[in-house]
């Protein structure tokens, strides 16, 4: 059975696993994200697996169409690198490199909470806040691969949304996250007005988050909005999402 090695890189942790044609994920490995030599860490991680026919890498930053990863805001020492070329040359298999939020959203749009929808927005609420958009089952990247990088929007105080989010620290409950959640949901609804929004990441799991999110989106900027917000139920959505394009080939 065909198996794809999917690797989901976050700002603080990496999750990897083998994905088969039935989207079952096995041989799962989880580890902290290296802040000093991420590329070497990924090469070593891939080298620890066998039995895969392709590699999918979901990265937390700007990914160009040719596989170049230019910037990872939540990884301190990272230089631009063509990760697709590096991995393909080393392991002699096809390689797919995607932004992590886009990989998450692709999985949700094809086999998750958005599988019956045309326009799906996915939001990862974690170390960073990433947004992905899938339209007609195709990932919308934008010209430079930065469509949905809404945490980098500069607000009226001349600080980015991510600066405010990081200053807040870790959230203990949904109420603490309310104003940050409201801001990012407003940006997504007014930019894309999707059929559904799917939340993933660590603070999407806070008690009451789904109820709060739906309350915050009934009226956006004075406009009535009917877009439902759902919490992801997929395990390892990022791993599955970055593997899916390779499984379809």
Tell me what the structure shows.
This is ROK family protein. Belongs to the ROK (NagC/XylR) family. InterPro entries: ATPase_NBD, ROK. The protein has 249 residues and is α/β, with parallel strands linked by helices. It has a 5-stranded mixed sheet, with helices on both faces. A 5-stranded mixed sheet has the order 11-10-9-12-15, with helices on both faces. It has a 3-stranded antiparallel sheet with strand order 5-6-7. The protein folds into 2 domains: 3-100 and 236-247, ATPase, nucleotide binding domain (Nucleotidyltransferase, domain 5); 102-231, Nucleotidyltransferase, domain 5 (2-Layer Sandwich). The mean pLDDT is 95. It has 7 helices and 15 strands. Helix 1 runs parallel beside helix 2, helix 3 crosses helix 7 (237-247) and helix 5 (174-192) crosses helix 6 (209-216). The two termini are 14 Å apart.
Helix content: 25-40%
Our count of helices gives: 7
Distance between the termini: 14 Å
Can you identify the CATH class of the largest domain?
Alpha Beta
CATH topology category name of the largest domain: Nucleotidyltransferase, domain 5
* Number of beta strands: 15
Largest sheet: 5 strands, mixed
> What proportion of the residues form beta strands (DSSP E)?
25-35%
> Cα-atom Rg, whole angstroms?
17 Å
CATH homologous superfamily label of the largest domain = ATPase, nucleotide binding domain
**Any idea what the CATH architecture of the largest domain is?**
2-Layer Sandwich
Q: Which outline best applies? A: globular
Protein name: ROK family protein
Family: Belongs to the ROK (NagC/XylR) family.
Organism: Candidatus Doudnabacteria bacterium RIFCSPHIGHO2_01_FULL_45_18
Pfam families: ROK
């Amino acid at each position: 059975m065909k198996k794809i090695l999917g690797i989901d890189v976050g700002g603080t942790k990496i999750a990897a696993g083998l994905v088969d044609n039935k989207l079952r994920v096995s041989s799962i490995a989880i580890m902290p994200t290296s802040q000093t030599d991420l590329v070497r860490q990924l090469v070593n991680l891939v080298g620890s697996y066998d039995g895969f026919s392709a590699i999918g890498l979901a990265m937390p930053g700007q990914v160009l169409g040719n596989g170049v990863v230019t910037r990872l805001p939540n990884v301190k020492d990272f230089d631009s690198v063509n990760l697709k070329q590096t991995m393909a040359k080393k392991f002699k298999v096809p390689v797919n490199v995607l932004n992590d939020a886009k990989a998450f959203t692709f999985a949700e749009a094809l086999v998750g909470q958005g599988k019956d929808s045309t326009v799906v927005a996915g939001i990862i609420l974690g170390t960073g806040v990433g947004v992905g958009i899938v339209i007609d089952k195709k990932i919308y990247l934008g010209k430079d691969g930065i469509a949905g990088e809404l945490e980098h929007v500069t607000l009226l105080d001349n600080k980015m949304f991510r600066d405010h989010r990081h200053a807040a620290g870790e959230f203990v409950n949904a109420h603490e996250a309310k104003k940050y959640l409201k801001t990012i949901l407003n940006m997504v609804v007014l930019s894309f007005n999707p059929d559904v929004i799917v939340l993933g990441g660590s603070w999407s799991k806070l008690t009451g988050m789904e109820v709060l999110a739906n309350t915050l989106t009934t009226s956006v900027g004075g406009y009535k909005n009917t877009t439902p917000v759902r919490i992801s139920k997929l395990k390892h959505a990022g791993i599955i999402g970055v593997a899916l394009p390779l499984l379809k080939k």
